[in-house]
Amino acid sequence: DEGNDFGFAIFAGKSFTDNIFAEFRIASLGEAGLANSNPAIDAAFPDAGIEYLVPSLMGGYRWFPDQRFSPFVRAGLSFIQNDATGGPVDFEEQTGIQFALGGGVDVALTETFFLRGDLDLYDTDAWFAAISAGMKFGRRPTRRVIIAAPQAAPQPAPVVRAPAPPPPPEPTPQPEKVDPPAPKMAAAPEALPRSVDNDGDGVPNLRDACPQTAEGAEVDETGCAAQTSYEFPTVRFAYKSDALTRESEIRLRDAAAFLVQNPQLLVEVGGHTDPVGGQRYNQPLSERRAQQVADFMVRLGVSPTQIVVRGYGQLQPIATNNTEEGRAFNRRVELRSLNR
User: Fold this and answer.
1) What 3-state DSSP class applies to 67?
2) Is the pLDDT of residue 176 over 60?
3) Which stretch of 71-85, 124-138, 181-195 has the lowest confidence by average pLDDT?
4) Rounded to whole angstroms, how far apart are CA atoms 169 and 309?
């Protein structure tokens, strides 16, 4: 005379990869009450019932393991065990083995603790829905991120010097009286021929340390693009995300163009996080954020030798972590010039 009851469960599992796991669970599904067509017997044994105890072993697959909400499905075998309670019930104990299905979603509270809502289907008359709390043990595997070692500023390629032309013959001295020379006027520099100045920046090839400077770029005496005052951008990230936003890509395009124009510059790309999840989780997240920025700038033409990638995790906040606004400021990648 009852179709449902309250119960409890305990479970333990192991993750083999970020997505694949196995779990063992013991669920007490509660009790199905029994009624008797004889009112006297029904009144004599009001608490008669059948208890359900179900151990199960299932393998599962989860989506979005790095996100706060991680749905999953699972399948395996379950063992329904019954027992009679509350009176002399004519009962033959059975143990049924059958295929079981389940699924639900995990909600990460921290790197260690989580909540779970799930449903298991053991048989046509046996199912169990639960709200659970769990704790993760062991060390979480992290993705490998290649961190570039600091590179020295690129050295100019050796230049083969052409032999100097012979000096022009000295003019024959004139005996007649020579008028005093007129005052010298500053003359505009004449453009050098391309055979002498490949990139047309006004610095001969023999003294040009950057022989392929973009046409029209302002250069210094070495022929390299003159470094102007430039403020590198800081880009922000969503919670637990390493994906670049459209706004961040626009800001990074300008920074990439500046670095392409100044190949002698070296820049650090430093990744940072808020403290949610702990440093063990946030260190690889900060490295992935920095690597995303570095890879994007390389695709825009910046030389990999100009970029040093570093991750700082949650260790260098620039705002309070007690508010959502402050944590949003701390989820960032900063670009910093390493040239002195």
Assistant:
1) coil
2) no
3) 181-195
4) 59
